[in-house]
Amino acid sequence: MGGMGNRGAAAKVLTFLGERWAALFLLLLLLGFGFLERNFFTFKNFSNILYYATTYALLAAGETFVIITGGIDLSVGFVMGFTGVSSAIVMRDMYAAGRPEAACLLVGAAVGLALGLIPGLINGLLVARLRVPPFIATLGTYGVANGMALYLSNGFPITFLPPRVQKIGNSFLAYLLPDKGFTFLHRPEGLKSKELRSLIGIVPVTVLVTAAVLLVFAFILKRTRFGQHLYAIGGSKDAAIRAGINVPSHLVRTYVLSSMLAAVAGVLYVFRSGIGNFTTMSASYELFAVAAVVIGGASLMGGKGGLGGTLIGILILMTLENGLNIAGIPAFYRYIATGVILIAAVVIDQFTPERKAGGA
Predict the structure, then answer these.
(1) 55-87: per-residue pLDDT in tens?
(2) Residue 1 burial by Cβ neighbours in a 10 Å radius (0-12, 13-18, 19+)
(3) Among the listed residues 279, 213, 214, the one whose alpha carbon sits nearest the alpha carbon of residue 79
(4) What is the 3-state secondary structure (H, E, C) of 197-265?
(5) Domain residues of the chain, as ranges?
(6) Can you list the residues of the chain whose pLDDT is less than 50?
(7) For the domain 22-351, what is the CATH code?
(8) Using CA atoms, how far apart are residues 270 and 91, in angstroms rounded to an integer?
């Protein structure tokens, strides 16, 4: 009896650590970089981590939905580039034609978001209706989206956008000027160069938008019938069909949702950078999105995962990159570290008592 009790306690500890290792690892990263680099634990640095995490967070959020169903979406990075280029072209041409800036921004953003639904619909129909493996279907869309972005941009960034684009994309909810206090929604005017250097932006607008989107989709995933059906499909498609779930319809909507979030990332990138830029082949946005989802506790076998864990995965990758940059360590170590962490995440998932019991 005592031996069985000890084994049960050990299994509970392993399950606890297996489910929360990513959060513990993130905490260790923060403490480690904070100890090594005194400039790491600053408000401005953490704001930068969140600012640059927005793109990956949106891509990984869509990837989470797909991976929960047991699929994968390799097209999200190039869909982001395609929608960003398309959105920027509309903004540029409308502004050149003398249209009001507000109209240019609204129509350009709407066009980018609408076009972003098309690759997802194609992916969903290929996977759900024609039974093409998700890897192949989304790899094909990956190439088409990349080719369309290069065709539309002629291989060059789209520039000469309305000036307000970048101003909005790089604004903050509030600004703090030491010894002078806060201003909300607008930067103080007439600042001297020394004051500009000490000005602190609090909560980037792009982070607010991303947080709002993630909250909505976290609610969809955890609190709606659609979200619960995704877990059922990932657990067993046959069982889901027997339970009366319209599996093909759910899969189509899931891939459309993933593509839509990639489009949101593309439009936000335009606002952040002030240009429309195609995704380079070496950017590997989709691979880091998949890595974040798996590191966050999702299983590539399907039926497991959540946006909370995915967000922790994103923060691990971005904290790692930020810390390495501050420490002056070459960027290629980020790729090595990401690969090692990803392999560790998969191994941990395989050896948790839950997974072993499921495979028994």
Answers:
(1) 999 999 999 999 999 999 999 999 999 999 999
(2) exposed
(3) 279
(4) HHCEEEEEHHHHHHHHHHHHHHHHHHHCHHHHHHHHHHHCHHHHHHCCCCHHHHHHHHHHHHHHHHHHH
(5) 22-351
(6) 356-360
(7) 1.10.3470
(8) 10
